[in-house]
Amino acid sequence: MADEEFFRNLPKVTLHDHLDGGLRPQTMIEIADDIGYRLPAGSADDLADWFFETANSGSLAQYLTTFDHTTACMQRAGDLRRVAREWVDDQVADGVVAGEARWAPEQHLRAGLGLDEAVEAVAEGLREGMDAAAAAGKPFIARQLLCAMRHADRSLEIAELALRHRDTDLVAGFDIAGGEQGNPPTNHLAAFHLLRDNDFFYTIHAGEEGPLESLHEAVQVCGAMRLGHGVNIVQDITRDPQTGRYLLGRHARFVRDQQIPLEVCPSSNLQTGVASSIKEHPIGTLIWLGFNVTLNCDNRLVGSTTLSREYALVSEAFGLSTMQLAQIALAGASALFIDHAERTRLVQQMTLPWFQASVNERGGGVQPDLWDR
């Protein structure tokens, strides 16, 4: 098994990483002390343990309750700026070269900030992080995705907010987030139509806990350009008990054949009950069948994880070669909501380190087909 340190030294991209799910515990403690907020633990280590253990419940609803504490520490402009800056710093330290920080501005207004002020504060933090990374010789591409909460009724307002800031504050896309059960993506069609009319990117949380119908609506009715999680697409895949052959239903085949990127977050899915172990996670089947899989953390604090750890877990569980994991990393880069020329340069820059790592892994031999096992 290639360990976490091995993957930390290789360039990666994160598409699905919630800003409010990756705070440093010490940062939370310092902000909470300043604003008089009571956290569930007093030390950084104990707080990190509390988040992981509370979220590790097998229930998305229980998992989401932990965000009451993180968002409480992200209500002032300075705190949003600090969290965004540290988000970049932590990604760079993990060997990530580009990423989209997603968050829901509507959840950060309790201290008097307006929606626009909140977006501007996060943009300032992301810029500070990028400037520091460039000065250290480790350039990083940061963007923000604005989420609307799918159980609320502000999605059109948040879509309008995203469009206002698309050219000034690193806002690259839109998303709907929150509990999927009972909150279908079609509740937010007006927002998606507005974004389409204005040629703007968006992804949709779908297929995390909801039924196949939620995925179908996200893709065929709402026009999702990427799918947040998407792992429940396996509900439309069966396996012949006699031959072992996989049989794809029409929707699964469409998602696979259109190569709609899936933002898969293995450790998070284990915490919310998608699978009981990493070896039983649908990602192995999805990779094998040629779906456009990208690998992500979802929430680094809540999942006690890093992107390098996710690569190591998947590598060990499914026996993937370095070249197979390279394809996943490059799929993430190719799916970024950024300018095509910038994306192309990034893919080119990422390719050589992964190829060289694969050559070293195989002792310099001839590289087989990427999916040859």
UniProtKB/TrEMBL annotation:
Gene Ontology MF terms in the entry: adenosine deaminase activity; metal ion binding
Keywords recorded for this protein, A-Z: Hydrolase, Metal-binding, Zinc
A single GO cellular-component term on record: cytosol
SUPFAM superfamilies noted in UniProt: Metallo-dependent hydrolases
Entries under PANTHER family matching the protein: ADENOSINE DEAMINASE
Name of this chain's protein: adenosine deaminase
Every Adenosine deaminase domain range: 11-349
UniProt xrefs under InterPro entries: A_deaminase_dom (IPR001365), Ado/ade_deaminase (IPR006330), Metal_Hydrolase (IPR032466)
Listed EC numbers: 3.5.4.4
Origin: domain of life: Bacteria
Source organism of the structure: Brooklawnia propionicigenes
Keyword Metal-binding carried by entry: yes
GO BP terms, alphabetized: adenosine catabolic process; hypoxanthine salvage; inosine biosynthetic process
The protein's required cofactors: Zn(2+)
TM stretches of this protein: none
Any Pfam family the entry gives: A_deaminase
Similarity section: Belongs to the metallo-dependent hydrolases superfamily. Adenosine and AMP deaminases family.
